[in-house]
Amino acid sequence: MVRWFAVSTLGMPGTPIGRAAGLAADHGCAGLEIRTHPDEQVHTGLSRREVSEVRAAVADHGLEIACLAGYARVCAPGPDGPVVAELRALVDLAHRLGAPSVRVFPGGDVESRDRIGEVLDDLRSSGVRLLVETHDSHPTGEEAVRLVRPFGAPELVSVLWDALHPWRHGEAPARTREVLGEYLAYFQVKDAVGATPVVPGLGAVPLAECGEVLRGWSGWVSLEWEKAWYPDIPPVDAPLRAAAKWFAEYRTG
Asked: Mutual orientation of helices 17-26 and 237-250 as an angle, nearest 10°?
């Protein structure tokens, strides 16, 4: 069993990748989850030179890129073409950056099988895995796994378990872990009081239960601190220290 700790740059909006990687390394992270967005340094329009700069900035701090956090919505209303194009662009960027996976959202009630199916060859040839997050229209493990199980290829298409959303929608951590099974590929630590993010351990999310049911599982564990969406919450340092402590407690067994 191997587990690695990372932090998402969502908690450091506007911060250059080199500085974000330095902060992550200072807190004992092995990886950096990179928000991929037009407002940030990393986006799908990066040139070859810019890709090299990002890779070097992360590697210079002894880190790996744990995941690219993209915003494609595989079940979004509308035609398939734009969704497939966005997925392809994210997979290509992940491949160029050396990232093992790309996070996407469900985002609606449109059938996603054909859309994801269109990029299976891209995933296979690039070695990148597509991760559908437990979020928005499919917030529980039971709902999210329905989008990926038809492909029968967890090494290509799996689920990112966001600690908050399944629990908030009535699915206990043990149930989430059970239904995801081999399709669990990534775990995001977060805590909240109501809708407001708080330092892990100070909110209502049952992180101790999450830690226990994750014992025996291998993969990336990342703190997602949503400062990009909640600019008035504190800087990432305190939640990152708390998440690192939680990770250390549950990383083995």
From this structure: 50
The Cα–Cα gap between 196 and 142 comes to: 25
Long-range contacts of 189-194 (CB under 8 A, 24+ apart): 189/163, 189/221, 189/222, 189/223, 189/224, 189/243, 189/246, 189/247, 190/162, 190/163, 190/164, 190/223, 190/224, 190/225, 190/226, 191/163, 191/164, 192/164
Would you say residue 253 has pLDDT above 70? no
Residues 6+ apart with CB under 8 A from 196: 230, 233
What is the pTM (predicted TM-score) of this model? 0.98
- Residue spans of the domains in the chain: they are 3-250
User: What class, spelled out in words, does domain 3-250 have in CATH?
Assistant: alpha beta
Instruction: List CB contacts of 100: < 8 A, sequence separation 6 or more.
Output: 65, 66, 67, 94, 127, 128, 129
Q: What angle do CA 130, 209, 243 make, to 5 degrees?
A: 70
pLDDT in tens, 224-244: 999 999 999 999 999 999 999
